[in-house]
Design brief:
The protein is mainly α. 66% of the residues lie in helices and 0% in strands.
């Protein structure tokens, strides 16, 4: 599906959180979602008793937090691996890094 252009200039996350602290309005975007994704968001919105817009925002936030968590875990394992140069563990570490990077 296609997403339309933002109605405002995109802002960095730090600018968005500064705007929130100052009570400034958030940027608004119009997006198109695949039917299955839209159905899942609608189900989440009903479960959380919130609007579709707030449900989308919450799910995006959770996805971004998950991505940051995987990144921290990746670099932690990389640091641990650099401290341990055991060649027999390299294949296992490659598989773990692949899973962290690809999210699988």
């Amino acid at each position: 599906m296609y997403a339309s252009l933002p109605t405002k200039t995109p802002q960095t996350l730090s600018q968005l959180s500064a705007n929130k602290r100052q009570g400034l309005p958030h940027s608004r975007y119009t997006v198109s979602l695949a039917r299955t994704v839209a159905d899942n968001v609608a189900r989440h919105a009903r479960t959380a008793d919130t609007s579709m817009s707030k449900a989308i925002a919450a799910l995006v936030r959770l996805g971004l937090e998950g991505q940051e968590s995987r990144k921290r875990e990746f670099f932690g394992k990389l640091k641990m691996n650099l401290a341990n140069d055991d060649p027999s563990q390299q294949d296992q570490m490659v598989d773990e890094f692949r899973a962290l990077i690809l999210g699988r």
